[in-house]
Structure formats: C-alpha cells, structure tokens
Amino acid sequence: MSLDISTLQLGTHVKVKEGIKAPDFDYQLMSGWQGKVTKIYTETGIIEIEWDIQTLLETPYQYLHDIISQGYDHELMNISIDELEGANKRLHTAKEEADLASKIYWIDFYEVMEKDQMYAEIFKGIDTSDYHGLYQKWEEYLNENLDFPFEVEVAEYERGGLKIGTKIKLLDLDDYDEKYGIFGIGKYEMGSVISPICNLEATDESSSNYELLRDYVVWFANK
C-alpha cells in the first residue's frame, strides 16, 4: 500500500519496507516494523513514527540498549516516506504493555547490557510501578541464589540502626516493607538482629553473594 504525502494523515498506521536499516545503527534491519504517523514534514518527505508495542517488544535488545544508552528516543523515529508503506493497526494486551515496560525499565540500569537483559527477563511481566510485585520477585530470586549463611557488614547507616562496619552473619531473609525494602535475619556480637539488606554488603568481594546483594542495593537506591 503506497503512501502519498499530500494526502497522508496523522494517526495513519504504517510499516517499514523490506531491507531498510535503522538510521545511525546500520547493523539493525527494520523490515516490517510498525507504528503510527505523529508528524509529517511535507517539504522534506520525512515522517515521524511512533512505534507500536509489538514492534518494541520484538526489537532486539542490543539495538534498544544502544539507542537508549546513547540518548535516542526509542519510541519515535523520523524516516523517509519512500521507506514506508501502509499497514493495519495492531491491538495489544495489558500483558504486552507490562512486558515492554519491564524490558525498557532495566535498559542501562546497571550499565552492563548482559546484566540489564538478565534482570529484564527475570522481572518480565511485572508492572514496574508494582513495588509489591518487584519486592516479591527480588525476595524469591535472592532466596534462590544467595548462599546462606554468609558474612556481611553494615555499609549504610539508618538512625537507630547498626553502626557502619558492624559485621553480621546473615542467616535468611524476612519480609519487606515499602520504606526499607527486604529485611535480613542475622546474628552479631550483641545477639540476633533484623536489618534492611539495602544497608548491607557481603564482606567477600569475590563471592557471588557480593555481586547479587550489590545488584539489589543498586536497584533499591535507584528504583
């Protein structure tokens, strides 16, 4: 379905022709990507497109990571009308919306693409505004992957809490709340303690516990 810029209307649904590559990222083919027209630059023949959710869900993670980390808008693109053809509107589900939000949420979060992609997959389908859902998934993931017991030390101080540098043997995870996040159960020289794990750091920096606990702390600080 060919397009005529003189009759093209805002909101028209279009798709990219076969063989067209992404501007500034010529490793990425855009054949079949779909969206709707949001601006028309008649004099230059350039069309601004807002990609639909299915397109963004199917877009390779490498490309999305590259454009977002370099400051490009992942939802909009200017493209020549000669590279477009007409398309039918595609409906999307609430699950697809949640999956896309999760995919985008983690991009450039840790500034390591492989780690960002891993967490996007772990948290896939969880609404990024649903902190209960996020905490529950974190608690489940940490319980499955932390090797208890292990030694931690207090790296951040909360009024009324333990002093920085206090060593604790972390035994298990407890519940969570919205202010402090997930709590850990442990022992130290003064007895038993329950402490927010966002304040803790594993003492063995070479261990998988150190990196995993650090990942949670970074998420908690930037959520």
Describe the fold and architecture.
The chain has helices at residues 53-58, 61-69, 94-105, 113-122, 131-145, 208-222; strands at 13-16, 21-22, 25-29, 34-41, 46-51, 76-80, 84-86, 150-154, 167-177, 181-188, 191-196, 200-202. It is α+β, with helices and mostly antiparallel strands and 223 residues long. The strands form 3 sheets. Strands 6-5-4-1-7 form a 5-stranded antiparallel sheet. A 5-stranded antiparallel sheet has the order 11-10-9-8-12. It has a two-stranded antiparallel sheet with strand order 2-3. The longest helix is centred in the middle third of the chain and has 15 residues, at 131-145. It starts with 12 loop residues before the first strand and ends with a helix. The mean pLDDT is 94.
Q: Supply the number of helical segments.
A: 6
* Lateral arrangement of strands in the main beta sheet: 6-5-4-1-7
CATH architecture of the largest domain: Roll
Helix content: 25-40%
Radius of gyration (CA) equals: 23 Å
CATH class of the largest domain: Mainly Beta
Fold-level CATH name of the largest domain: SH3 type barrels
> What does the average pLDDT come to?
94
Instruction: Please provide the ordered H/E string of secondary-structure elements.
Output: EEEEEHHEEHHHEEEEEH
Number of domains: 2
